[in-house]
Specification:
Length: about 120
Amino acid sequence: QVQLAESGGRLVQAGGSLRLSCVAHGGTFSSYAMGWFRQAPGKEREYVAVISWNGGNTWYADSVKGRFTISRDNAENMLYLQMNSLKPEDTAVYYCAADQLTNRVLQERAAYWGQGTQVTVSS
């Protein structure tokens, strides 16, 4: 069983930067692929970025490619999302997710999910 807790969300102006964090408790963090997802008001949840268990592979949604960077620190059980050049359309609740199978994370079928952190980008 893995418990995930996101932090770092806040109000930021367009063009600004923000780093989200996700701490994992329980399980063996280094055995899990991890991902970031987001859900804006009135919209379905969408995939943002995924990272393999050792950080060797990363995947990004086209909408964030070149602006967001996913990373992890297996020694600290931490997942990060560095967000640069933020846009109002990035406003959403951001969730981290974990699963031992990378494909399940990519398909938004991860076994474990956090509660989310709110990111609001003002224009």
